[in-house]
Amino acid sequence: MPVSVVTAIDPVLRDSLVASLLLDVEGAVELRYEVTADSSALRRLLLSVDGVLEDDAVTLDHPCVSCAMREDAVPTLDRLAHDPRTAAVLLAPPISADPSVVAGTLRPHQETWHLASAVAVLATGTAVHDLLGADTLAERDLQWADGDARSVGEALAAQLEYSDLVVAEGGIDSAGGELLEHLRAPEQRLSEGPHDVEIGHVLGGQLDHLHALRRRDMRYVEPYGGPTAHGTWTLDLTSARPFHPERLLENIEALGGGRLRARGRFWVPDRPDSICQWDGAGGQVSIGAVWKAGLDLPTTRLVVTGVEPADGPRVRDAFGRSLLTSREWAAGLSPWLGAEDHLAPWLGARDANV
């Protein structure tokens, strides 16, 4: 039994797409999870083209996406897979859920069913504001649980970058469509609206979870580029040199602030064994020491997309100012041994062996 994970930040768009697919696929059902306000419970809905089949409250030990999938979605999918009336499942996790977490939790349990695809749907008419604006999920009442401090852009970008099929409601001949083309990888399929979706792209394949994760891995970022008629631009900022920790802090607002989508990796000379990630959207930036560098020194690379003409030069200049100078780089890493760790509050404690 094929299972497709359908995510969005707009429930109307998601429900429109799912309804269209239910009409096209005989025996398909939607397994939908909704957040119950002021509770750790979820509402589980099972729907078909004929209406609501089930409507139940699900109480969780912990209100998180992975718990919901593991504790309730897995047994529900197993049950549906043994029902001869069910031909396929469109799994709609709560609005703003990260599909990589959903698929990653479900993936080990595939036996009588399999993950066929991940689909993200967004409106190109609001895509610039949704992806690059400063709104948080809490401000739009879209957060998964209390304490979810993500921006709308962070949540939508995660859905867009992981999914192998992107459905662009409103078409792509707009500023939002142009931005989408800069952020979408060439191998990701694009459909211009729910009625343009091919069923085989949703239910006829096998989700490649590892390949989807690689698209989101900051170590492998690539600039996809795209049309520029509406003013969208992408910078590919690359250097063998690390960021100077103090100058990075001085320049971080100029480097990451504003209506930008920025992804990449960097390193700092006082912890040369660490590759740090940079994940920014809508003026919010998340950094962390995420990977070990191995035998070779890391490199620094940020891919930044924006729509404001003045932001490009500002970001490029801030990137250059944040790097070690040629003279500092020529001095090697020995001056950094035992140096004060200015980035510890963001990167965590430095490895004592470095």
UniProtKB/TrEMBL annotation:
SMART domains: CobW_C (SM00833)
Transmembrane segments: none
Pfam families xrefs: CobW_C
Highest taxon listed in the record's lineage: Bacteria
InterPro entries noted in UniProt: CobW-like_C (IPR011629), P-loop_NTPase (IPR027417), Zn_Chap_cDPG_Synth (IPR051927)
Domain CobW C-terminal: 232-323
SUPFAM superfamilies given in the database record: Hypothetical protein YjiA, C-terminal domain
PANTHER family given in the database record: COBW DOMAIN-CONTAINING PROTEIN DDB_G0274527 (PTHR43603), ZINC-REGULATED GTPASE METALLOPROTEIN ACTIVATOR 1 (PTHR43603:SF1)
Protein name listed in UniProt: CobW C-terminal domain-containing protein
